[in-house]
Amino acid sequence: MPRIALVTCRPGPDVVADQDLPGLVEALRSAGAEAVAVPWDDPDADWGSYDLAVIRSTWDYSWRSTEFLAWAGKCAGLTRLANPVDVVRWNADKRYLGELAAAGVPTVPTRYVAPGATPELPPEGEYVVKPTSGAGARFAARYTSEDHDTAVRQIERMHAEGFTAMVQPYVRSIDAHGERALQFFGGRLVHASRKGAVLTPGTAYDAEKVAHPGLTAWQPTEAELATAERALAQVPGGEELLYARVDLVDGDDGRPCVMELELVEPNLFLSLHPGSVEKVVAAVLARA
Question: What is the percent of the chain with per-residue pLDDT over 90, rounded to a whole number?
């Protein structure tokens, strides 16, 4: 009977509850595992007593990244961690998008503004500013050229908190076709979802946002699946991935491109895809 920790975070005003977690714990128990949900920052957790620790919903990690990555390194030294700690470190900073682009993977064009650097913002058109360490559209906002001063103030605020800023063109296809999330477990696609636009004009970067508006099931196209697999092939240590979610949008040429790779704590949307629970459980048990 393998002992499995599904790693989560403590409830709080800045994090939403993982609706899928209780059902996944119960499904693993029904399959013969000794499974339990454990907050990553629980000082009493005995990580060495588990055969496998699966990072599931550590949804406060992006604003505690130094502390979280230190925990991941410690945990990986005591038990098997999924995903592996080197993958977690790589994916926790969205500058990986630059590496994917350099390898020829279609991605949303991205510029980075590190603390101390002067931001160069697009002179025309809509664009998005967000931190390289973030989740759920936290500290993200959509601007036009008329909002230059406001965007600069946002970047200065992020710099003051130690964040590097990202500047991307706003992908207008999201308004019409949404964003597609392809979920992989054990190296295989288990399901896909589509959601609507998260960022609306005029919404402040520090305002609370709905992370997955209008979520529906989606059947990925061959081009979307090929792009997702191409991106995952470039992940350092990607052969050790237990899970991955690839978020795609349509570029200006109408072809899918990578918005993000979610390799740390992606929402699995199992409530939308209950048929995937058995596949997820099988992949977790195989890794354990």
Answer: 81
User: Could you give the strand order of the β-sheet that contains 52-57, starting from the edge strand earlier in sequence?
Assistant: 34-39, 3-8, 52-57, 80-82
pTM of the model: 0.93
Residue 1's SS3 state is: coil
Tokens of 37: 């949900």
Q: Is there a contact between 82 and 53 (Cβ–Cβ < 8 Å)?
A: yes
8 Å CB contact between 127 and 87: no
Residue 258 has which token pair?
């990578």
Task: Say if strands 188-195 and 179-185 run parallel, antiparallel, or are unpaired.
Answer: antiparallel
Residue with tokens 């599931």: 56
The string of DSSP codes covering 98-162 is HHHHHTT--B---EEE-TTSPP---SSS-EEEEESS-STTTT-EEE-GGGHHHHHHHHHHHHHTT
ω into residue 267 within 30 of 0, thus cis? no
Contact 108, 258 (CB under 8 A): yes
What are the start-end ranges of the H helices in the chain? Answer: 21-30, 65-76, 85-91, 96-102, 148-160, 173-177, 222-232, 277-287
Question: DSSP of 214-252, one letter per residue?
Answer: T-EE----HHHHHHHHHHHTTSTTGGG-SEEEEEEEE-T
What are the tens digits of pLDDT across the range 162-220? 889 999 999 999 998 999 999 999 999 999 999 988 887 777 777 676 678 899 999 99
Nearest CA-CA partner of 184 in 93, 248, 102: 248
- Contact assessment for residue 94 and residue 166, using Cβ atoms and an 8 Å cutoff: yes
Contact call for residues 75 and 53 (beta carbons, < 8 A): yes
DSSP designation for 192? E
Of 54, 80, 58, 78, give the one whose Cα is nearest residue 69: 58
CA-based torsion, 9, 282, 82, 94: positive or negative: negative
